Amino acid sequence: MTTMSKKNTSKSSGWFRDAVVYHILVDRFAGYRADRNPHKPVFLGGNLKGVAGKMPYLVNLGINTIWLSPVYKTTAYHGYHITDFYTTDARFGSEKDLKYLINLCHQNNIRVLLDFVPNHCSNKHPFFREALKDGKNRYRKWFYFNRFNDNNLCFLHFRELPKINLDHKEAREHIIGAARHWLQMGVDGFRLDHAIGPSHDFWKAFRNEVHSVSPEAVLIGEAWLEGVHFSMLKTIRIRKKYLRWLLSFKPWDIEREYVGEMDGVLDFFFRHRITEYIAWKDDPAHHIHKLETSMKNHYKRFPDDYLLPSFIENHDMNRFLYDAGQQHEKLKKALEFQFSLPQPPIIYYGTETGLTHTQPVHWDVPFSDLHARQPMPWESLDTELVDFCKELIQKRKKQLPLVSQSR
């Protein structure tokens, strides 16, 4: 398979073009307790010290960037239910632990992305609890309350996650200030959760502030609409959303929404195509040409300096092996194709050792995403598959003109 080429001209995100990203769900990666049930939505105990302790493994694997799940104070093991945007959750570790991990990564020429969640917070956040007290409370304007009752907008239909009014000056400053705080600690950028939730005006302000603090910080958005019903459109802030809904959204259309505001977005289009042409086909080799043509045409829709990191699985969907009928050869073909593309590849923790499940992840089934969030099986790694991934990473590094990762 021939590696496709595409020039990147963005100064700030230039280093990310040559990134090989390793996506870590902190609670499930390392340092967790084996006596806790991973099939329940509870903290297993995975932590930042655990990640730091696996640095030799990460270095040996060959990745040069890690993406950490949210580590801020939270009510949930996955970190997305935030109660304080400015502090780490003690169950993940202290700020000292995070700073140590960042420094250790940089010493090993590995960049660090934090998962950042500006659109919403936990309903246990003290500011939201204050807002509930009365209609004249200063924090009332930080959220989207109905003027006639205490109903408020939330993240899609999840009532426990109130949506933050990021067009309110104080709320916007608070959230952008949190991003500034972590950048000053040394993180190299953010994966931006639910990018379709905040307004474009917020994202422009966010980008300007981030780059005033750290010109090379990369901003990669999560821009997708799967599982979003018509009734949820009121909670998102994309252009002409109702008209576009009626005309049927195209995945590349949503991904293009943030050109000029972010350095790029996660490429859900690729994930669907790799599943369609490899995981679901009896003989994927007969469909590689169609897949390659589809991706070439896809990339033509975007500016050259807009990044579209590829992934074959993540924490919200089926593991690729599940979709592929547990066939490891299909997983290898998918990884080979992913690493041949000109965009940064993302490896979700455990992919490299064939982590999988036997029950599907369903958007509308509570906690079914736990199937794709099982602990890293350190005692039973598939060394043959791990070595296969190492070789793919090394081959990619030799073929691409890597930008220096040194700090």
Features:
disordered C terminus, 8-stranded parallel β-sheet, TIM Barrel, single chain, alpha/beta
Descriptive overview:
The structure is a single chain. The chain has helices at residues 26-29, 48-53, 55-61, 95-107, 126-131, 169-185, 200-213, 241-246, 251-255, 268-279, 288-299, 320-323, 328-340, 383-399, and strands at 21-24, 65-68, 72-74, 82-88, 111-116, 154-155, 158-162, 189-192, 218-221, 264-265, 310-311, 345-348. With 407 residues, it is of the alpha/beta class. It has a single domain (14-119, 166-399), classed as Glycosidases (TIM Barrel), CATH 3.20.20.80. Strand 6 and strand 7 form a beta hairpin. Helix 10 runs antiparallel to helix 11 and helix 13 packs parallel to helix 14. The relative contact order is 0.14. Mean pLDDT is 93; it is low at 1-10 and 401-407.
| SSE class | alpha/beta
Q: Tell the overall outline.
A: globular
Q: Supply the number of helical segments.
A: 14
Strand order of the largest sheet: 10-9-8-5-2-1-12-11
Topology:
Layout: E1 21-24, H1 26-29, H2 48-53, H3 55-61, E2 65-68, E3 72-74, E4 82-88, H4 95-107, E5 111-116, H5 126-131, E6 154-155, E7 158-162, H6 169-185, E8 189-192, H7 200-213, E9 218-221, H8 241-246, H9 251-255, E10 264-265, H10 268-279, H11 288-299, E11 310-311, H12 320-323, H13 328-340, E12 345-348, H14 383-399
Parallel strand pairs: 1-2, 1-12, 2-5, 5-8, 8-9, 9-10, 11-12
Antiparallel strand pairs: 3-4, 6-7
